[in-house]
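Researcher: Next entry in the queue.
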Amino acid sequence: MRAQEKFIQDVAREAGNAVLKRFGKDRELYRKSAHRMDAVTNADLLSEKVIISRIKKTYPDHGIISEESGRMNETAEYVWIIDPIDGTLNFSSGVPMFGVMICLTHKGRVILSAINMPATGELFFAKAGKGAYLNGKRIHCSRTRDIKKSAGYGGSTLRGRTKRFLRNILNSKKGEHMILGSFASCANQCYVAAGRRDWVVSLTGKIWDFAPTYLILKESGCTVTDIRGRPWNLHTQELVAANPALHKELLKLTKNI
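Model: Structure for this entry, 257 residues:
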């Protein structure tokens, strides 16, 4: 396990360094859908190439699930889940809120995560049962217990269930809420893990948007579930995370959305 701990952090740094060299140079190459959030740049492809080549060389029997290349040997005992650049819209428009996200699963359970935000110099790391860290220092989620005094991330796009969730907040009589969005899961969720913000509710995304951040949130002390309060797993395509007291309040606001 120690070799894998070092490996995941080294690869996240290597890919992050490669991406950072292209920051301010790369623009949108193409889109996987009509939505701006689905933009791809040359840096996305470069980051993925760096990560996948290192995994295949070091752990040839492991499976891989990556945003750009899809699924390879996904039924393997060990599977790596990769988002080569989370926050590509930010990256391509010169906003330094983006990151390389990687996690390792064993028999369907996330055991290691590393998220490198190279433009801000932040490397988040977590090991199952051993805590979450930022640049080697242990981090913990916010201790705020009153949702009226909280600040959280409620999604970056005003559509579908996110729109209904925000409507619930606006209609709530629990006081003022601060709602933020950075257009990057890595920032939204890791900053909650670090206690810089109090909660996050993310209702749209894929496995690579949630799996790497899930373990960092959990190991920081957050309760991490779906909107019904069921523990998050690799099949869950939504995420509600906060300290236990705030989490109970968030579930009330996600009811019937």
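Model: The two ends are 40 Å apart (CA to CA).
Researcher: Noted, moving on.
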